[in-house]
Each structure stands twice: as C-alpha cells, then as structure tokens.
Amino acid sequence: MRAIPSPSASSCASATRSSGLTTAGVASSMAPASLTVWHWTLGVRKSSSPRPWIPWLRAPPCAYTLKTKHQSSMKKASLIALVALSLAGCQNMAVVSSNPNGDLSRTGQAGMVSFGLQNTDFEYASKKAVQEFLESPYAKKPGGGRWVVQMGEVVNDTTFRIDTASMTSRMKIALTKTGQFIFTGATGAERTDFVKDSRQLSKSKMFNQKTVARNGTVVASDLEMGGAIRQRTVVDGAQKQQQLEYEFDFRVVERDTGLEIFQSLIPIEKLGPNQNFAW
Fold first, then answer.
1. Which of 48, 140, 141, 254 has a CA that sits 20 to 30 A from residue 31's CA?
2. Domains present along the chain, CATH in parentheses
C-alpha cells in the first residue's frame, strides 16, 4: 500500500496565501466543531455581561501627603504636651503658708514650703510669742530684778515627730537677751542631773569640800513656761486640696499665786494638694 505524502510547510503557506486565509483562520477552520462552539459561547458571555468598571483612586501628591502627616504628628504632640502639663500641674501644686516668712532660706534663694513644720515656722512662732509676752504688763518683775523661769512640758499634738526644743530654745534665747529673764536647770522639764549630783560630792573625801556645792544655794524658779503644738487637717469636699492648721499655744504660770499671767496662741495654716499627704 502506497503512503500518502504529507504536505510541506511551504506548500501550506503558499496555499494559505493563495486562498486569502490567515493562519488563525486556517487553524479555526481545521479545529473541531465542539471547540469552535465553546469559543463562540465564551465570547457571547463576555460581550453580554462585561465586568463593572472600577475607577482607580488617584494618589495625592507627595507634598500634600507630607503636609497631612506633619499636621497629624503636630496635633498628637500638642495633645501629649497638654496632658503632660495638666498632670504636672496637679502633682506640682505649690504649698502655700500663712507664715509671711515661710519661703525664706539661708541659701539666698527662695526656700521650699512643705506641709510639715520648718525652721521658718519655729522662728516665726517663737519670735511672735516672745514679742507678745514682752508687750504684756507681766514681763517686768515687780520690785526689779530678773524672773527665774523653768521650762515646763511642751506637748507635741501633731502627726509629725517634732523636737519641741526647736521652739523652746529659740524662746529662751530671745527672752534671755532682754535681761529680764533667766532660766534654771535645777527644776522643770529641762532640769539636768548636774545640780543634784553636785550635792553628792560633799559626801566624798576625794573632793575639796571648799569647792563643792553648798546646801541652800539653789535659786528657786519664779515662773514656769509651757504649752503645746497642735495640728488639724481639713480636706475640701472635692478631695483635691487639704489644709493643715497648726497652733502654737504657750502660757506662763507664776509660782506663788499659781496664776496664769500670760498666754499666746499663734496659728499657722498651710494649703496644698491632697495627692501628697502630709503624714
């Protein structure tokens, strides 16, 4: 059986040119019927129900983008700074004192004012109490001479640990400088063992008896000075502020009559935030 020769590529191309058909047309004409129908159906579907057109958003210019980001960052920075300043203002609210010398300092700069009692408070209260006593009619001893004063008890009725000598020592110094008062260490809250022990030396052969203290030589006190330091804490209804009210209460009692010949009450108030408790 004789084989049928297959057409060459050149012969196919020439046949195509002569017939006026393209290669695609030839391929389509030579394609199976089922494939042709499938291509036709797909084309109809595409033409009958096209996909919706979605417009693309144009990106803003670079300058506009940078400006928007800069404004946003500036707003955030301003908001953060405002919140920080508000919190700092609440926490750093200054304490105000009724003591006119409350902010004085020996450093040459403005001093710190706190809820607690400071040296400036003791100096102010002691100076004012002494001044009021010296202005009273009982400051001078009848018949002349100096008052002999013993220190009584000064009660610390505050929430702070206070050495009341910070107050009484200033008062003693100021009164002694006037020449009208002298304080004893033989009796009272500030008595010492020196006077009592010196009397025991007269029983010892170790000491020269001419140099020891003699009996009947201790001077009794004429006055006793004592008092108290009190404190009250008041908080406002909004729980935002607190006020500490201090009272320096001092009195002088005469020995012979037992009368209270003088009393002084010096108040000092301190107002500040309620976030930082004073105790």
1. 48
2. 96-184+219-273 (3.40.50.10610)
Closest CA to 125 of 269, 16, 259: 269
Backbone angles phi, psi at 264, to 5 degrees: -135, 140
Q: pLDDT (tens digit, 9 = 90+) per residue, 57-76?
A: 555 555 555 555 556 666 66
Q: Are 248 and 125 in contact (CB under 8 A)?
A: yes
Could you tell me the two tokens for 163?
């050495």
Cα separations in angstroms, 69 against 61, 65, 75, 101, 134: 13, 6, 10, 53, 74
**pLDDT value at residue 239:** 81
How many Å apart are CA 188 and CA 172, to the nearest integer? 14
Higher local confidence (pLDDT), 23 or 278: 278
Most confident of 36-45, 48-57, 98-107: 98-107
Tell me: the pLDDT tens digits for 165-207? 999 999 999 999 999 999 999 999 999 999 988 988 988 999 9
